[in-house]
């Protein structure tokens, strides 16, 4: 594990060229992924079948030789374990049964261990099948982001249903976030114990929160997750990705205890440099530069390497790779970074 570049960067080491992986690197832009998903029959069948999940996690490693593999799963397996009616609609994304305030106290996490056992089995298999030098990243959704889907029953542009829920029902929101933090931490602990080198907490909707709500919904629950994970796995390496949080990222590492701060593509270079003086950062190429390719891609890569390459950096996109990203552009990205 100590020889794996990504782990070394998470410990504060500067490595150049930096280790690189891409969020959603196993996905629809790859023909082999599309073929496996068709065989699996559905997205959840892909997530919960260790054969299929292991295969699609390994596909981008075989093709591109990324420095890290990230477990193929979904942030909504936690509400699925809570029996919230999760299903995926073609062209619309995830759907759940919207939760009412009076239902929160009755949520039963007791089936989570059994329900998520296939995912943990996938982690164990991946560590055995990955190249020795390749880091394995586990992950969980952050409590706030998971809660937004549970409250609205689907994704929304600004998470207004969840924000209103928090204003109208603050006690129930706190109760829901606490439960999701406890379950998320247990889930991450199991992934680390099964062989993950590090874990990432995805707070994809942190950017819609005002300052007070960010502290209550995005900082406090994640800090609880980190605390609980470290109590079980003292040297656990944790990446926190609060997308869209902007200036609220200042102090996020100290308040939550994460090792590295994930940056989306809107984070200014000066702020990124300041965050890097405190420890590792991850990011933050605009995913659309990867689609555009050519000059736009090269300039984006060079700016990050020149601006942040002198400190602990994990090169990544500022959000997930999109289905229309050309494979040739991913190859060009890696050649530019490693060249």
Description of the molecule:
The protein is an alpha/beta fold. Helices cover 50% and strands 12% of the residues. The chain contains 16 helices and nine strands. The longest helix is centred in the middle third of the chain and has 25 residues. The two termini are 25 Å apart. The model has no long low-confidence stretch (mean pLDDT 97).
Short synopsis of the structure:
50% of the residues lie in helices and 12% in strands. The chain has 339 residues and is α/β, with parallel strands linked by helices. 48% of the residues are buried.
Quickly count the helices: 16
Number of DSSP strands? Answer: 9
Q: Please tell me what the overall shape is.
A: globular
Question: What is the beta-strand fraction?
Answer: 5-15%
- Rg from alpha-carbon coordinates: 19 Å
Question: Helical residue percent?
Answer: 40-55%
Q: Overall pLDDT, averaged?
A: 97
- Overall structural class, as computed from helix and strand content, comes to alpha/beta
What pattern of helices and strands is seen along the backbone? HHHHEHEEHHEHHHEHEHEHEHHEH
What can be said about the biggest beta sheet?
7 strands, parallel
Strand order of the largest sheet: 1-4-5-6-7-8-9
Quaternary structure classification: single chain
Low-confidence stretches: none
Q: How far is it from the N-terminal to the C-terminal residue, by CA?
A: 25 Å
């Amino acid at each position: 594990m100590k020889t794996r570049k990504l782990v070394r960067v998470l410990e504060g080491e500067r490595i150049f060229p930096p280790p690189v992986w891409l969020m959603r690197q196993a996905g629809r832009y790859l023909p082999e992924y599309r073929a496996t998903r068709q065989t699996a029959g559905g997205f959840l069948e892909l997530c919960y079948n260790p054969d299929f999940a292991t295969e699609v996690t390994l596909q981008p490693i075989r093709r591109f030789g990324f420095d890290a593999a990230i477990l193929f799963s979904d942030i909504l397996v936690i509400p699925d374990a809570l029996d919230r009616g999760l299903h995926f609609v073609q062209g619309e994304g995830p759907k759940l049964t919207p939760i009412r305030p009076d239902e929160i106290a009755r949520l039963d996490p007791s089936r989570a261990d059994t329900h998520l056992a296939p995912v943990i089995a996938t982690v164990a298999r991946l560590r055995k099948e990955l190249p020795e030098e390749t880091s394995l990243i586990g992950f969980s959704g952050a409590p706030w982001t998971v809660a937004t889907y549970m409250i609205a029953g689907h994704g929304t542009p600004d998470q207004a249903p969840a924000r209103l829920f928090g204003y109208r029902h603050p006690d129930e929101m706190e109760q829901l976030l606490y439960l999701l933090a406890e379950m998320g931490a247990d889930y991450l602990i199991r992934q680390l114990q099964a062989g993950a080198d590090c874990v990432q907490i995805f707070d994809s909707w942190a950017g819609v929160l005002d300052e007070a709500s960010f502290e209550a919904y995005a900082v406090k629950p994640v800090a609880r997750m980190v605390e609980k994970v470290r109590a079980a796995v003292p040297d656990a390496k944790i990446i926190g990705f609060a997308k869209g949080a902007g200036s609220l990222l200042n102090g996020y590492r100290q308040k939550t205890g994460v090792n590295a701060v994930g940056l989306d593509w809107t984070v200014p270079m000066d702020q990124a440099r300041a965050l890097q003086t405190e420890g590792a950062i991850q990011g933050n190429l605009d995913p659309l530069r990867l689609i555009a390719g050519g000059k736009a891609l090269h300039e984006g890569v060079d700016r990050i390497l020149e601006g942040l390459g002198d400190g602990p950096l994990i090169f990544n996109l500022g959000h997930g790779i999109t289905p229309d990203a050309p494979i040739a552009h991913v190859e060009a990205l890696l050649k530019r970074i490693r060249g």
